[in-house]
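Ligand: adenosine-5'-diphosphate. Inputs:
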Amino acid sequence: QWTGISEELRYEIGESNHKNWIEPLECLGVSDGVVRFRAPSRFVGDWVKRTYHDQIFSRLQTIGTDVTRMEFIVGEPAQRPATATATAASTVNKSGAGDELQGAPLDGKYNFDNFVVGKPNELAHAAARRVAEGGPVTFNPLFLYGGVGLGKTHLMHAIAWELKAKRPDLQVLYLSAEQFMYRFVQALRDREIMDFKNLFRSVDVLMVDDVQFIAGKDSTQEEFFHTFNALVDQNKQIVISADRAPGEIKDLEARISSRMQCGLVVDLHPTNYELRLGILHRKAAQFAQSYGSIKIDDGVFEFLAHRITTNVRVLEGALQRLFAFSSLIGQEVSQDMVQDCLSDMLRSSERRVTVEEIQRKVAEHFNIRLSDMLGPKRTRTIARPRQIAMYLSKEMTSRSLPEIGRRFGGRDHTTILHGVRKVVEMREQDTQLNEDIELLRRLLES
Ligand code: ADP
Ligand code: MG
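Predicted complex:
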């Protein structure tokens, strides 16, 4: 049962979090309302309790287990659970004192071959490729940012894999910012701070994922800053990821955020329909290797790409569920199966936004009257926001063009199409517009 829960969590919290926190746990069973786990360290136990408590509990409850508390015992698991994916640890061992600095495990599937490139991520991909060549450092750091599940971690692992193959002489270290902090705190506690510094300063390529995590954690930020500077001074490549641009990370020290901007800052944009479709096809080929090939209607891919728009991880989870279900009952994936099997995911994406909410928010944002948005006026200050609202309606709801047209004061579907295309066109060059749209999208989704 725990294995099932653990697998579901993998999709919810992501491969790398799962590997770091959930996989090391061994479930020892439930008694008297307490579920017991063996964790490799107290830190892992505390972390899981703090971070994943609710997710674990809600799942235990759905399978009818009567638990009220979780407890962790510290110790190495009796038998290590076999992992389904190929992993390799990036190791750095230079101190000679037997100290070993181990990076986070790399996911074998997160390589460049499996990364689907489209307009929204082509710059990030190109920059990652450049770093992965292992040639002379041209920009430092490479700062990748973007929303959850858009492929930051995937790209960083891909860089690491590629460098391992091309430049085995280089010491490549990939880890999350929280692991950086954990190591640092541990080194402080064990009075091994000099070792910590030496180890981190001896790597050739340092990659730190989700750096927003250290914002507000003063001594960790301080140490990170020094590590960062020391490596840059030695002309060692650094790759950083975060969920937003350096200047927008709250409580990140100004001197750090300005150093981050000295290199190349690239943005992973939210996926578009074509990219999602491409990713679905690629993942289907991947899943076919473990589930056997399964017949899926093209309409199913289109439907999913259209409906599950926020997060590639969720999209992937949906497809995985269809594969599992289909192989279980030995039928091909039909539209009906999609409805049955994914009703929960589809409901939550359905409930998201209405055209009316979009119109209201957009009008508010651009400071125009709702009646003008729906009315006939064609001045730029009104027509532009109206087109943006049309675009968002097409992107964020499942309404058809004629349906959207009706909600825009009875406009024709060709007018809506024109508006949508116009915005797509303008987005290619207008960064301010992109920011407006992303902001609105976030407001509408929350
Ligand atoms: P992030 O770190 O930005 O939150 P991840 O790198 O963990 O996102 O990506 C989430 C999931 O989506 C992963 O399984 C990843 O393989 C997949 N993914 C995201 N973008 C792409 C892409 N362009 N091509 C293939 N898979 C992708
Ligand atoms: Mg990530």
